[in-house]
UniProtKB/TrEMBL annotation:
<comment type="similarity">
    <text>Belongs to the dienelactone hydrolase family.</text>
</comment>
<keyword id="KW-0963">Cytoplasm</keyword>
<dbReference type="GO" id="GO:0005829">
    <property type="term" value="C:cytosol"/>
</dbReference>
<dbReference type="InterPro" id="IPR042946">
    <property type="entry name" value="CMBL"/>
</dbReference>
<keyword id="KW-0378">Hydrolase</keyword>
<dbReference type="GO" id="GO:0016787">
    <property type="term" value="F:hydrolase activity"/>
</dbReference>
<feature type="domain" description="Dienelactone hydrolase">
    <location>
        <begin position="100"/>
        <end position="301"/>
    </location>
</feature>
<dbReference type="InterPro" id="IPR002925">
    <property type="entry name" value="Dienelactn_hydro"/>
</dbReference>
<dbReference type="Pfam" id="PF01738">
    <property type="entry name" value="DLH"/>
</dbReference>
<dbReference type="InterPro" id="IPR029058">
    <property type="entry name" value="AB_hydrolase_fold"/>
</dbReference>
<dbReference type="GO" id="GO:0009507">
    <property type="term" value="C:chloroplast"/>
</dbReference>
<protein>
    <recommendedName>
        <fullName>Carboxymethylenebutenolidase homolog</fullName>
    </recommendedName>
</protein>
Length: 308
């Protein structure tokens, strides 16, 4: 197991691993294929039935899944491909929506450098939605994510093109679109925000700018290029998850965030490197990824549902 109570960083955060039945095994998570959504801007995309079940409905065709998957698994989540805004400032996004157990709560999922269409990001969004959430994954890179066939010598040049102000603007635009969709059906709730790697760094940045307006809780998985000094501006619970063998997300930076912000908690997995929680490569990493997912799930539940 990756967690250890021997390290001081765990002194304020005790984790009890539980078994849970809602999450399908990794091998059975659908590879989702999104229809292009053509919706009326005057009609909300998000709609809730008025009955007791509060079942979630969407005005687009359902996601198609591979034939090898059971009908029951396919019914858990709907997926829609959409565009937020118009013209040069438009943002492509994927929306994953719980069907049977929708809790009327939105989550913004910020991808790593491989972008919103990456299969690992889609799988993770599906799993979050299976827990009842409505998960919006925006394209932070405007159609130009990092690809594995590019030489690593070019990555700094690519990152320099990702203007921080533009990325922040896109994230807030995505969040406000989702909040407006909920408001149109009479629901007023703050969102959660999750991010990996590049997106994990953006979680800290965005929450420090939010002023308790859009978001009610955040989770940063091994965030990169974090300016820890902004953490004192964060007003909502922030969970930091990382591995102690990850040079891209130094533990001392996360410790500094925790010192500056009493709303934050840190969980460090021993012998885990970058990306283990959403891109596990070994059975051991997969086990720790399961545990990290449950920690995140409980954090969002407490921060978004219990406090509601």
């Amino acid at each position: 197991m990756g967690l250890s109570s021997a390290c001081p960083v765990f002194s304020a955060w005790l984790v009890y691993k539980q078994h849970y039945l809602w999450r399908p095994p990794v091998s059975s998570v659908p590879q989702l294929h999104f229809p292009r959504c053509k919706f009326d801007p005057g009609r909300p995309l998000i709609s809730f039935s008025k009955g007791i079940t509060n079942k979630f409905e969407v005005f687009c065709s359902q996601v198609e899944a591979k034939e090898s998957l059971s009908d029951e698994a396919c019914e858990l989540v709907n997926g829609t491909e959409l565009t937020i805004g118009e013209g040069d400032e438009s943002i492509s996004a994927n929306l994953f929506q719980a069907v049977k157990n929708n809790n009327s709560t939105g989550i913004l999922l910020l991808s790593d450098i491989y972008g919103f269409e990456d299969s690992s990001t889609k799988d993770f969004a599906y799993r979050v939605a299976c827990n009842g959430y409505n998960v919006l994954v925006p394209d932070l890179f405007h159609g130009d994510p990092w690809t594995k066939d590019r030489p690593m010598s070019h990555i700094e040049q690519w990152i320099a093109k990702q203007n921080r102000q533009r990325v922040a603007k896109d994230i807030f635009a995505s969040a406000k679109w989702m909040m407006n969709e909920f408001a149109a059906v009479g629901i007023s709730k703050k969102l959660g925000v999750i991010g990996f790697c590049f997106g994990g760094g953006q979680v800290v940045d965005i929450l420090s700018q939010d002023e308790d307006t859009c978001f009610g809780a955040g989770v940063s998985f091994y965030g990169t290029r974090i300016e820890s000094s902004v953490a004192s501006n964060i007003k909502v619970p922030l969970l930091l998850i990382a591995g102690d063998s990850d040079p891209l997300s130094p533990i001392n930076v996360l410790e500094d965030i925790q010192k500056r912000n009493k709303e934050s908690k840190m969980v460090v997995f021993r012998a885990r490197g970058h990306g283990f929680a959403h891109r596990p490569q070994t059975p051991e990493e997969d086990e720790d990824a399961e545990e990290a997912f449950e920690i995140m799930r409980n954090w969002l539940h407490d921060g978004l549902l219990v406090k509601d």
